[in-house]
Amino acid sequence: MSRVGKNPIKIPEKVTVEINGRTVMVKGPKGELFQELPPLVTLARKEEYLQVSVPEAQVKSNRALWGLTRVLVANMIEGVTNGFEKKLEINGIGFKAEAKDKKLILNVGFSHPVEFELPEGTEAKVEKNVIIITGSDKQLVGNTAARIRNIKKPEPYKGKGIKYIDEIIRRKAGKVAKGAEGKA
């Protein structure tokens, strides 16, 4: 049995869940999300809980889909109630970011400022050198943060660039200047 998949999902008071065939729709205070269920997985509502099940639990691929579906639906419920956020840190002299409308304007060492269009369902705030990406869809928030990080990845010599707030950059030693023994 899937240890994750067999756990029931509690539905909070402010959240409504609708199951239409293979589609699950979750509405809450932070928005609404849709998810298409895999073919072998069934989702049943029991009072204030949701239960995910598969026909043959001993088949490895069924167990994997069972746990995955349970986590996806649980993340949808978490997203419409509390939302998700990712924090990115900008390091470098003169590097800065600014959030305008649905755009993020980054000055990160290029000859021009980079304008990043935020996808629908995400928001960005900038506090000093920290960019905070928020939204109700966990996958969309993580993907947006990864795309922003890809604009200027942190380099290993001075650590300049855009990195996750909890990311550790392994530093490399730079070139060592040769002394007088190198000249003859």
Automatic annotation (TrEMBL):
Keywords: Ribonucleoprotein, Ribosomal protein, RNA-binding, rRNA-binding. Residues 11-83, 92-164 form the Large ribosomal subunit protein uL6 alpha-beta domain. Signal peptide: none annotated. GO terms for biological process: cytoplasmic translation. This protein binds to the 23S rRNA, and is important in its secondary structure. It is located near the subunit interface in the base of the L7/L12 stalk, and near the tRNA binding site of the peptidyltransferase center. Belongs to the universal ribosomal protein uL6 family. This is Large ribosomal subunit protein uL6. It comes from Candidatus Kerfeldbacteria bacterium CG_4_10_14_0_8_um_filter_42_10. One of its GO terms (cellular component) is cytosolic large ribosomal subunit. Part of the 50S ribosomal subunit. GO terms for molecular function: rRNA binding; structural constituent of ribosome. Pfam families: Ribosomal_L6. Gene3D superfamilies: Ribosomal protein L6, alpha-beta domain.
